[in-house]
Amino acid sequence: MSPQEDDLRALAKIMDFLRAVSIILVVMNVYWFCYEAIRLWGVNIGVVDKILLNFDRTAGLFHSILYTKLFSVLLLALSCLGTKGVKGEKITWGRIWT
């Protein structure tokens, strides 16, 4: 294995991690701002509530509904910038629009 292959694998892992964090932030955003509906459904996770309250107190990420979404989009954009696209010969405009 060459050092370049190791670097590419490490970059791919970092990009996957950024995508995962972005998805987790969106899930946390839904849980935080839809808490009353989630509680009415009977899904109440006390440990997650404490973690999110502490996270909000220290980071202030949930003060506005847009902060979490903007941060998530930023992480997603960074993960997209770090990956190379491979051109697929079988992809047509019809498939793209579908």
From TrEMBL:
Pfam families: YWFCY. The keyword Membrane applies. Residues 6-97 form the YWFCY domain. The chain crosses the membrane at residues 20-41, 61-81. Keywords: Membrane, Transmembrane, Transmembrane helix. The keyword Transmembrane applies. This is Conjugal transfer protein TraG.
